Amino acid sequence: MTLFRWLPDRFISALLGAVLMATFEPARGGVAEVYGVITLLAIALLFFLHGARLSRQAVAAGASHWRLHGAVLATTFVMFPVLALCLRPVLAFILTPTLAAGVLYLATVPSTVQSSIAFTSIAGGNVPAAVCSASLSNMLGVVLTPLLAGLLMGTAGGQGISLDAVVHIALELVAPFLLGQWLRPVVGGWIERHPRRVKFVDQGSVVLVVYGAFSASVVAGLWTQTPVYALFALAGIDAALLAFVLAVTYIVGRLVFRRSDAIVLLFCGSKKTLAGGIPIAKVLFASPRLGAIILPLMLFHQIQLITCAWIARSYAAQTPAGRDSQPV
Questions:
Q1: How far apart are CA 154 and CA 178, in angstroms?
Q2: Tens digit of pLDDT for each residue in 227-281?
Q3: Rounded to two decimals, what is the model's pTM?
């Protein structure tokens, strides 16, 4: 059973399958164009569900933990981008330009929702505060991630975010998200009663985007232009970035917050969402570059799941029953 615990889950397996399929049978020509339209519709549906699923009551209920939420948001949208900028000379030296841009993009992505809450719960943390922090991060990320990506890539000598990309963000991400929030009183109950169907749409949309992204990148020569050493270097950079942020959030949490809130900072502050980050990247970046740009995020996601699962289990083993596990 120990072996199966370390194997990728079905979602990660589906993503790896999409990458392999795109490598050997990429979508081309007219098929790629039709596939692109289907993907755009899937992304719009995904962000509609994100909006409809976000409980404003949960956000309001956790508003009293403003210092904690501020620390989580600062870690996600300030510390990560600053670290990425500091790493820029290293990235330019050991990675391809597109992979380096992918690390910069990774730094701008919001926190995860489901896994952050799950790990907080396992570790005995403040679950309501985790729900609020993770939800707020994703809500703000719809706007902040494109803005930060444009700023970081412009600073790094890239093209930044064009006016055309801003229009696409508004139409394909923000508008469905706001529509979902508006219709939450109508569809929210159905969504809460059918979590498996919603999860299927979430993960299915991401798999669609990954296949399309890697198809375009493979056709453009992704694997012939990416040295093997760069992939190993990317894994090391992702692991180092996660380790540094985990260390900082752990220390700050111990110094500033009580134990249950420190756990929220540790998990919500250090994690990056694959389900939200890949669809936003699809809107922001040209298809031939997209596969390499989302590769750092895909790798980071798997590393963070394995690492945070181990940390959560360690916290759970050290938590006496009832000790500082309930919110104030």
A1: 28
A2: 888 889 999 999 999 999 999 999 999 999 999 899 999 999 999 988 788 888 8
A3: 0.77
Contact 148, 17 (CB under 8 A): no
* Cα distance between residue 17 and residue 3, in whole Å: 20
Instruction: Map tokens 């498996």 to a residue.
Output: 196
- Number of CB atoms found within 10 A of residue 179's CB: 15
Shortest CA distance to 111 belongs to which of 65, 68, 80? 80
Domain 27-317 fold is Na+/H+ antiporter like fold (1.20.1530)
Nearest to 102 by CA among 280, 224, 248: 280
Q: Which residue has the tokens 């990425």?
A: 84
Domain chopping of the chain, boundaries: 27-317
The rounded distance, in Å, linking the Cα atoms of 190 and 177 is 17
Structure tokens at 180: 């979902």
Tokens of 164: 């055309």
